[in-house]
Design a protein that fits this description.
Elements (H helix, E strand, L loop, with lengths): L7 E3 L5 H14 L8 H6 L2 H13 L3 E8 L2 E10 L8 E9 L8 H16 L5 E7 L3 H9 L3 E12 L2 E11 L9
Parallel strand pairs: 4-5
Antiparallel strand pairs: 1-2, 2-3, 3-4, 5-7, 6-7
Length: 183
Amino acid sequence: MPPNPHPIRPLTSADTDAYRTIRLRMLREHPEAFGDSAEEREREPETVFRERFVSRIEAPDRFVLGAFDGEALVGTVGFYRHGGAKVAHKGGIWGMYVAPEARGRGVGMALLEAAVARIAATCPGVSWLQLGVATVNGPAQRLYERAGFRTYGVEPAAMIVGGRAIDEALMARRVDGALRDGA
C-alpha cells in the first residue's frame, strides 16, 4: 500500500462545518457502524452540534484528527480518555471514517497511527485503547487488526438498525503496541 498522501492534523473549532458535513455523511452511508443516527443529527440545531464538537476537541485528553485531500476533510478518528482514577489508563477510539474516494490509500491506517502517536505523546498514563466495530464491517475489523487491536468480546445486538440487530466486536490494544496484561 502506498504511503498516505493526505495530511493529518487535529481538528479545531474552525473545522466544525467540515466535520458536521463528514459526520452526517458517515452516518448516512454506514448507519450500522455508528451509535448516532443521521436523522437525529440532521434535526439537531447546528449550535448544539458545534457545542458538542468543541467539547470533544478542546477538553484535555480528547481530540479528533482529520485527514485532508486539499481543503476537503476525507477521514476522521476521535479519542477520549476514560474518566475516574481506576479507568484513566484506558481510552476510546470513536468516529473512525474514511470517505470512499480516499479509501485504499492508507488513510485509515495513517489516522490510527497518528492517533496512537498523539495519545502516547500527550496523554501520559493511557496504556490501553478500546473500540467497538460492527461485526458486519469486515474491512474495518481487518484494519483494526492490522493496527494491533485484538477482539476480546462481542456485544450481541449492540444496535438495532432498520429492524436488524447489529453485533459489535469489542477490540483493544496497548498504546505501546505490546499485547500483554497489566499497565
